[in-house]
What we know:
Helix 1 (13-30) crosses helix 2 (45-58). The protein has helices at 13-30, 45-58, 84-91, 113-126, 163-169, 188-192, 207-215, 239-242, and strands at 5-9, 35-38, 66-69, 71-73, 103-104, 132-135, 157-159, 183-185, 196-201, 233-237. The mean pLDDT is 96. It is globular. It has 8 helices and 10 strands. It is α/β, with parallel strands linked by helices. 2-amino-2-deoxy-6-O-phosphono-alpha-D-glucopyranose binds next to helix 5.
Amino acid sequence: MASGIDVRVLDDAATIAQEAAGLFAALLRDCPAAVLGLATGSTPELTYAEMGRLHRDEGLSFAQARAFNLDEYLGLDGDHDQSFRYFMQKHLFDHIDIRPWNTFIFDGTARDPQAECEAFEAKIRAVGGVDLWLLGLGGNGHIAFNEPGSASDSRSRVVTPHPETVAANSRHFADPSEVPAQGLSVGVGTIMDGRKIVLIATGAHKAEAVARAVQGPRTPACPASLLQDHAACTFMLDRAAARGLSA
Ligand code: GLP
């Protein structure tokens, strides 16, 4: 069976941000109480800036929306400047009218992290599931903190990021030894349950992972390849990230 992923190669990161934010805007205009699935990482920053602009300049409202994030570092409080909660406040939530109580991110300081994961899954179910997940892509094919080896039906759980991921993320920390060794992450199955998925990737350093995800075998060895089985998954890429794809 051919890959089910719809691939769009766009001019540059700014165009990807416009198109990806545009998908969320269209969803919210159609369904103001939509359930948004959000990601961290450098790649989505421009998309969040565009969502903020759409709110400021074009009246796009998030007032009834609910938002769930993919992952969080275990051990970091939401006030820590490297926590994903802090990132979301800084890049998106502080610039739009989403209600704080409608933003759901794992509590990295939960006393019982596995119970926190189960509660997170229950909250997603309680709101009727995620309408649209925004994903980034790890250089080794990870999505959220679902590293190679993650099963297609995996659920929210405590995870140990691959050393390659820890090394990549250490650029954000003053001292690389401060990068938490573990995280909390939704599973591949949690992502697959979303009604739509848009994955954004830019740059030549993502090209190999993109090619494996889109045209490689569906395998937990490349978690993003499992998205081939989703009925409504789009990859938005710049030319550099798409350069490993064959016609
Ligand atoms: C992190 C996150 C992922 C993200 C990936 C790529 O490990 N857990 O959700 O997609 O890195 O990040 P970037 O967009 O900075 O390349």
